[in-house]
Amino acid sequence: MSDKGPLPLTSSEMGLLWTTYINDTMSVCVLKHFISNTEDPEVKTLVELTLEFSSRHVKLLKELFNKENFAVPKGFTEEDVNVRAKRLFSDYFYLYYIKNMAKVGLAVHSLAYSMSMRADIRSFYHECLEQVTLMDQKATELLLAKGLFIRPPYIPVPEKAGFVESTRFLSGGFFGFRSKRPLSTIEIGHLFSNVQTNALGRALLIGLSQVVQSEEIRKYLKRGADISSKHIKIFSDFLLDDNLPAPMTWESEITTSTEAPFSDKLILFHMSLLVAAGTGNYGVATAASPRKDIAAAYIRLAAEIAAYAEDGAVMMIKHGYLEEPPEAPDREALAQS
Hints:
By secondary structure, this protein is mainly alpha-helical. The protein has 2 domains: 11-145, Ferritin (Up-down Bundle), CATH 1.20.1260.10; 179-318, Ferritin, core subunit, four-helix bundle (Ferritin, Up-down Bundle). It contains 9 helices and no strands. It is globular. It starts with 10 loop residues before the first helix and ends with a helix.
């Protein structure tokens, strides 16, 4: 990253950089544990590359914070990972985890790039975008080469262009009134993707519930796994109703280990990231789903995970795990001091 620019950081840039630092310090911990037990040499190479990218982000951001006299966040450290702990997931789970990590990174870093103004910050997020694009490409190639890539359903290509001629296009067939039209390819894509991300999240929740130390957090993770199961069924049923296949789940890729590789703080924070990503996915899918029953399902399920997220935030505050982001000055308090 270049030297400090002539302009001070905007509030948006502060928030973006702070969030990136916290997330990447968590990723470094997770990937260090993955790399300590990965057996497949091709998967290990990808994990090493991903760890290299996250470590570089942390280094660059520390340098920037120091130049800006910006208090370096605590984030996650060696205290939050036990690299000697037994593996909790298979190599193939690691591969899909990185694929999903790249998917989230593409969305987050593109938004950060567009929200940034300073040349050095935009350059940093441009580099991040190039790196997550490479991660996604390599993960996809490996999944295809190993026969593990889960493809969305195939359907016949359209023979001609057309326009919607009836409001049945919007009908969700509520209460038995009016028939539902077949799913559009756009709706299929979002339903399939949301089954995949919930399946990955559910496997992560189940695995981490085996190793978390706090019984309170264990119950929270199990509740999250139950919510994911419910959402998987709802999205899968939409696909199955149109005789389309739903993606596989990942429970078989969890080991029987009960040795904690991560701190409870990291585990709970990781769940908050999953929920945030899921909320964003549902928002995009809602906007892209004209059929009312599908849009209504996304809105209802988004409200359910929002309530779950709030409970997680309360728990993080209770245990002293929630690091406070930069805030605007409290002018009222300052005036009274």
